[in-house]
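step=encode ok
step=design start
structure_in=
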């Protein structure tokens, strides 16, 4: 199974490499206020991929921090629960007649 997964990864990598090497022509990206950026198309695609990756990581950070804090709180509660002795209550004795 691991061999198949690695085979798929290698095939995807080779496919993306061929795609990148076939798109080396210069493209011009026009921004607001007259700014322009001329670069190979693959470089522009890579730049926007990295920007999207960073935006996704930044947007996921609050949830990750919240989950880490909750995980720490639950670990502390578990440690306290394990250290606290359990008091076994005896059922009441039946009345003597």
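sequence_out=
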């Amino acid at each position: 199974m691991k061999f198949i997964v690695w085979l798929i990864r290698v095939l995807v990598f080779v496919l993306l490499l061929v795609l990148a090497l076939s798109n080396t022509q210069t493209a011009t990206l026009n921004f607001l206020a007259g700014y322009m950026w001329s670069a190979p198309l693959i470089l522009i695609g890579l730049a926007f991929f990295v920007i999207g990756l960073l935006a996704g990581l930044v947007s996921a950070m609050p949830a990750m921090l919240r989950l880490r804090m909750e995980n720490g709180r639950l670990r502390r509660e578990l440690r306290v629960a394990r250290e606290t002795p359990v008091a076994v209550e005896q059922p009441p004795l039946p009345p003597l007649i």
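step=design ok
step=annotate ok -> The helical segments are 2-22, 41-83.
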